[in-house]
Design brief:
The protein is of the alpha/beta class and about 350 residues long. It has 14 helices and 13 strands. The longest helix has 16 residues.
């Protein structure tokens, strides 16, 4: 890790030796013609693991979410999202720029929307209002510290949406982290939704790529959306091969990352100048508030000078993410360095 402990994100993970070997040996073809056997294998496996009939390989999670929005909606429709959701907060306004969609935002404690609040968000049909056609959910929730949504809540929200004719898309970038935290299958968490996007390049450590899964008919529409977004790749089996290794070898180890995050939270919880509740750390993301006149970006800079990289979430909040390339020893070192920096 070049002397650094990188806690900025699990996107910094590097591919395993098995991934590199698989990439070198991958059978390839032209995927736009449907002729890349490695991509086809990855799409079949990924769809099966989240309990859907079909999937399409995309370069990024942002493209996967955008393709889903385009496949589910028409320009001028209303999309309902939690106010801190990744689709709304971090995807460059793509739903408006590319989809012509109007976001309707719900505020939710810990990022978990209540079914009753969703029901109250619907307005009576009116000539002046856009038509709501899609509910977007997120599991785990990035900006709320990797909080997990269980299948009961997902089902309840989906039922409210479907009663009003909406489809349901799940931004499941870290859905396998959610499944590991709850001790259930990813398929059980995705069963209530119409489509799900999940990333191969975060905790699963593939170098690039995500999958969008849903019904056969939905994926046919999503492939056209992928094409218009520039995601129609050619001999991309070279990168899909790493995704196959990720799904077959990296899912079961995610609990290790969760344990490291819990230890990090416990070590930081008692330090002066930080406020966090280790009991709220469910997966591999640790979010902390700086108390008093704490300066989040300043803390990021001071920690970086000591070899620990993390991200600021605004002026007084920081985020740390554990992954396979951060060891238990690295966590203890990070806690010690935090203590020194915060003590002044």
């Amino acid at each position: 890790m070049n002397g650094h402990i990188d806690l900025r994100s699990d996107t910094v993970t590097v591919p395993t030796p098995a991934m590199r070997a698989a990439m070198a040996e991958a059978a390839v073809g032209d995927d736009v013609y449907g002729e890349d056997p490695t991509i086809s294998r990855l799409e079949e496996l990924g769809a099966r693991m989240v309990g859907k009939a079909a999937a399409v390989f995309v370069p990024t999670g942002t493209m996967g979410n955008m393709a889903a929005l385009l496949a589910h909606t028409h320009a001028g429709d209303e999309v309902i999202l939690e106010a801190d959701s990744h689709v709304y907060y971090y995807e460059v306004g793509g739903l408006a720029q590319l989809g012509g969609l109007l976001p309707r935002l719900l505020q939710a404690r810990d990022g978990l929307v209540e079914p009753d609040d969703l029901a109250r968000a619907f307005r009576a049909p009116n000539l002046h209002f856009p038509v709501p056609t899609l509910l977007c959910l997120e599991n785990t929730h990035n900006r709320h510290g990797g909080v997990v949504m269980d299948a009961v809540r997902t089902s309840a929200l989906a039922a409210v949406a479907r009663a009003r004719g909406l489809a349901v898309h799940l931004d499941g970038a870290r859905i396998f982290n959610a499944a590991a935290a709850l001790g259930v299958t990813a398929a059980s968490l995705c069963q209530p939704v119409d489509s799900v996007m999940f990333c191969l390049s975060k905790g699963l450590a593939a170098p690039v790529g995500s999958l969008l899964a849903g019904s056969v008919e939905f994926i046919a529409r999503a492939r056209k959306a992928r094409k218009v977004l520039g995601g129609g790749m050619r001999q991309a089996g070279i990168i899909a091969a790493a995704g196959l290794v990720a799904l077959t070898t990296m899912v079961d180890r995610l609990a290790e990352d969760h344990a490291k995050a819990k230890r990090l939270a416990e070590g930081l919880a008692g330090l002066p100048g930080l406020r966090l509740d280790p009991g709220k750390v469910q997966t591999n993301i640790v979010a902390a508030e700086l108390t008093g006149s704490g300066d989040g970006p300043g803390l990021v800079q001071r920690m970086a000078a000591r070899g620990v990289k993390l991200n600021a979430y605004g002026p007084s909040r920081v985020r740390m993410v554990t992954h396979k390339d951060v060891s238990a020893e690295d966590i203890e070192t990070a806690i010690r360095l935090f203590a020194g920096v915060l003590a002044g």
